[in-house]
Amino acid sequence: MGKRATHICVGAALAYALVGTTPPVLAAPAKTLNDACWETSFFEPFDRLRLSDHSSSEGWTTQYIWPRDVIINEELQYYVDPTNHPVNPFSIDAGVLTISAVPTPRDLLDTTESQPFISGVLTSRNWFEQYTGRFEVRAQVPKGQGLWSAFWMLPTHERWPEGVSVLPELDVMEHLGHEPRTFHTTLHTNQTGPLTSHPYDHNGLSDLTRGFHLYTAVWTESTVSWYLDGVLKATHPTPADFNTPKHFLLNLAVGGSWPGSPDNRTRFPAEYKIDFVRAMTPSGEC
Fold first, then answer.
1. φ/ψ bin of 46: left (φ > 0), alpha (ψ from -120 to 50), beta (otherwise)
2. 17 with 23: CB under 8 angstroms?
3. Closest among 204, 146, 136 to 175, alpha carbons compared
4. Are 172 and 217 within 8 A, CB to CB?
5. Closest alpha carbon to 274 in 136, 86, 182
6. Are strands 117-119 and 77-79 parallel, antiparallel or unpaired?
7. pLDDT, averaged in runs of 10, over the chain (286 residues)
8. Which residues are known catalytic residues?
9. Which domains are present in the chain?
10. Are 122 and 276 in contact, with CB atoms under 8 Å apart?
């Protein structure tokens, strides 16, 4: 979920043509997902929220790999931990998790780096990770200027590796609240040294904030393909540094260098609703 300097909406072959290289021959991804081709390896239905207590690897963690007080992308939120703060950005109702962002209460400013908003992040680091497969979330994204909801994947480390500027990142879905009919998918790689991003912007859709949708990435050793509600949207060759398992991240950011700040029309609490998160592996039936 890094800052993006460019936005494109082109197929993989055209993306290669733009930089003057020859696209590799890729196996054609399925145009629609067939569930019979897959078997579940991880399923989180959010009937309850399992948070890691650090005594075992079971459950979600509430911060990134970097320290909690490190604010990225010029964002305006602080991700709180309900076990250490007197507020809880996570709630569950009828099997749906809601991550809520609200203005920071005045009495919490001293413990939240004086950030004007508080919100939540969940990661499966040290609990679940997988190398290649199908990865998806069924979610309803929030509407409003300055809201940035995401479902993405990173390789697992105990701490940020020394000398590494970026970890290979797969963004299954990013949504900016002022663009209700668009969502974004990206690969971030440092296989050639500096950060290189391969973004795909999916425009002209129905209003994604008005209901739940299934956002999917199918990662193979040769390609990464993205789907909305089971229908193919884009494909890109798999970067060479996508060679280790990755874990899940779910978060609702507020503000930042990409979406900009909230305005007087942005409604709080802002709510990012997640029905389930799932990982799958090929069933061998297709």
1. left
2. yes
3. 146
4. yes
5. 136
6. parallel
7. 42 33 64 97 97 82 92 96 94 98 97 97 96 98 98 86 78 98 95 84 97 98 98 97 96 98 98 98 94
8. 169, 174
9. 33-282 (2.60.120.200)
10. no
Q: Which two tokens stand for residue 212?
A: 């739940």
- Residue matched to tokens 């994604």: 208
Closest CA to 99 of 278, 218, 272: 272
Calpha distance 67→61 (Å, rounded): 12
Residue type, 203: N
Is pTM beyond 0.85? Reply is yes
C-alpha to C-alpha distance for 52 and 126, rounded to whole angstroms: 9
Strands, E assignment, the chain: 38-44, 77-79, 90-93, 96-103, 117-119, 121-123, 133-140, 147-155, 169-176, 183-189, 196-202, 213-219, 223-228, 231-237, 246-254, 270-282
